[in-house]
Amino acid sequence: MENLQLTEKLNKPSILDLEKEDLNKIVAESGEKPYRAEQLWRSIYKECNLDFSEITTLSKNFRNFLSTKFRIGTLEKKIHINSIDSSTTKLLFGLNDGELIESVLMRYTSDYGKKGRKTACISTQAGCALGCTFCATGQQGFRRNLTSGEIIEQVLQLQKIALKEDLLEVEQGKRKKGEIQGITNIVYMGMGEPLANYKNTIKSVKNVIDNSGINIGSRHITISTVGLVPKIKKLSKEKLQINLAISLHAPDNKTRSETMPVNKRFPIEELIDVCHYYVEQTNRRIFFEYILLEDQNDSLSNAEKLGKLLNGLHCHVNLIPVNPTTNGVYGRTDDNANRLFQGVLKRFGIPSTIRVEKGIDINAGCGQLRERVLSTN
Hints:
By secondary structure, this protein is an alpha/beta fold. It contains 12 helices and 12 strands. Helix 5 packs parallel to helix 6 (198-208), helix 7 runs parallel beside helix 9 and helix 10 packs parallel to helix 11. The protein folds into 3 domains: 2-69, DNA polymerase, domain 1 (Orthogonal Bundle); 75-212, Aldolase class I (TIM Barrel, Alpha-Beta Barrel), CATH 3.20.20; 226-355, Aldolase class I (TIM Barrel). It is globular. Helix content is 36%, strand content 17%.
């Protein structure tokens, strides 16, 4: 009997996969008053209630009606682990079909008297088909796309953690009630290629920017891509003021093709052309991610090539020290070499940042998102 009830629950659709307009239809079907739709939306997305029984502002009859047809979310939390310095939390989730995904919450220290930001790094696919050689996810192959609800639920799960921390700081006198902020930034940089799951990725973005729900500002959201040229062009027409990050990682086709097979489909010339197009259409600068791989792409001549390649493009380069992965073969460029590389870019007038590392000790860093459970079995 218990197994039957569990099966019935698992077979129910997630209400997180529905759009706001769909809730109006559900409310009408239930016989409740129209304003209940907005109330339900806020209860889920603003208050992060992930079970209908928690939404006490709704009548018991309406909650029962909802629970017979839907459930809120489908993710099963399997691992919750914090880094030694407590700046990073990684969650491992099981999906309905047994696949595993990971999400990360990164905390940054406050500056200029302001409270530090909290960034959620979320996955859009189980696995990845693109096979970048320096990335743990790319080494495991593609499983499937995530639904928009599975993407959004990661944000809600991390938001619950972030808000709980804020409330605790209020109790401790470290934060005022008006300074409760929860997650401040979202980066689509977890497992998978966001633009290969275009429809569900964009649907989730439109959900989280809704000001009556999670309400993350568009300019605090970043979508990362290996460079799917047609999808970048499509994204430029969405009229979303989000950030676009391109995983470049090499300044020429030969070097890039050695580590990123996608370059054979969309070579650097096409990629840079569409980046110029994107900037023209959106008036937004582009971020380029560049993982520094010792003796692969980290020489000063590589920096010169990169400077020439990006010259005249409204952009910012994030230089990323490579993180160790299970099957990783790349050495780590030392700090001095990183600064020299950055210095060359400066000569070309290209702003850059050497990324602050987070969560390396719990395999939560860039390129390390891999199913921990599978690797230990």
